[in-house]
Design a protein that fits this description.
Helix 4 packs antiparallel against helix 6. This protein is an all-alpha fold and 307 residues long. 66% of the residues lie in helices and 1% in strands. The protein starts with 17 loop residues before the first helix and ends with a helix. It has a single domain, classed as Farnesyl Diphosphate Synthase.
Length: 307
């Protein structure tokens, strides 16, 4: 495959055009995702098309961007992290398919268009999600640009982020006892497992691929953990129609306790700010205060401006 990212890690600090680098990375992720997914000649064609529909729908590609930008921040050639970055996007897309199912949130809209089970059918959507989860592990296992140790570490993090203390657990917590009052600590656990765990794994993956020291890997993980908590609270503000930007169904969390309903919109927004401040402190501790920080925090500023 041609190297769409070669040389970008060598740009001098403060010299690059941030938006150009971000768009270059995002385009590289989209191209590589298209290559890694089953093509339209695969059989059964409907299953392949559902997987491509879910993964290649327009999106920020935030999780793969965390992997690529973190790898770049610690001096790695971004191409080395490209397949791992795409694996995290596959897992994210699979989680959205499952989250939207009639037995889960029963959503009709995702990323501004019909959810996968509405566009195809429920059985095809479920099978596409299972296929994408499997493909994500296979992509990392087959990546010859990674050392054996890096592959093992990434596979372990990916497994943990999906499993019984990860996305699966978060979705179960989200569905169970929605009519019971949850404490802020309960909500933080839910938000971390539903959203933050995959961000943590994606960011730590970039640091691991770059050979960052363990303390920096841990600090980057804390940055992503705080970022995930802030993201989920902001999603709850969006769901409550406090923030205008969406592209998905609103009001799906009306029957459950969120930080917005527990504390009110103003205190929930303040919690977003506190998590972002802690995320910034963790990045400073890791020594990663370049484009990674500007990109991550810029997304929140953009959403706030759209409110």
């Amino acid at each position: 495959m041609p190297c769409p990212l070669r040389g970008t890690a060598r740009y001098g600090k403060g010299m690059e055009d941030d938006s150009a680098v971000i768009e270059q990375f995002r385009a590289a992720v989209d191209r590589r995702l298209a290559d890694l997914l089953p093509d339209r000649t695969a059989r059964p064609a409907r299953l392949a098309e559902a997987a491509r529909y879910a993964v290649l729908s327009p999106g920020k590609r935030f999780r793969p961007m965390l992997t690529l930008l973190t790898a770049r921040e610690f001096g790695a050639e971004p191409l080395t992290a490209l397949d791992a970055a795409c694996a995290f996007e596959m897992v994210h897309a699979a989680s959205l398919i499952l989250d939207d199912l009639p037995s889960m949130d029963d959503a009709a809209l995702r990323r501004g268009r019909a959810t996968t089970h509405r566009e195809f059918d429920e059985a095809t959507a479920i099978l596409a999600a299972v296929g994408l989860l499997n493909q994500a592990f296979g992509v990392i296992a087959a990546d010859e640009r990674l050392t054996d140790a890096a592959r093992a570490a990434l596979l372990r993090r990916l497994s943990d982020s999906v499993g019984f203390e990860g996305l699966v657990s978060g979705q179960a917590l989200d569905l169970n006892d929605r009519d019971h009052v949850r404490t802020p600590d309960d909500i933080d656990l839910l938000n971390h497992r539903k959203t933050g765990v995959l961000m943590v794994a994606a960011a730590e993956a970039g640091a691991l691929i770059a050979g960052a020291p363990p303390a920096s890997v841990d600090a980057v993980g804390e940055f992503a953990r705080r970022l995930g908590l802030a993201f989920q609270i902001q999603d709850d503000l969006i769901d409550a129609a406090v923030i205008a930007e969406s592209g998905k169904d609103l009001g799906k969390d009306a029957a459950m306790t969120t930080l917005v309903t527990a504390l009110g919109p103003q205190e929930a927004a303040a919690a977003v700010g506190a998590h972002l401040a802690a995320a910034g402190a963790a990045l400073s501790e890791a020594g990663a205060t370049g484009l990674l920080a500007r990109y991550a925090f810029g997304l929140f500023e953009a959403r706030k401006a759209a409110a």
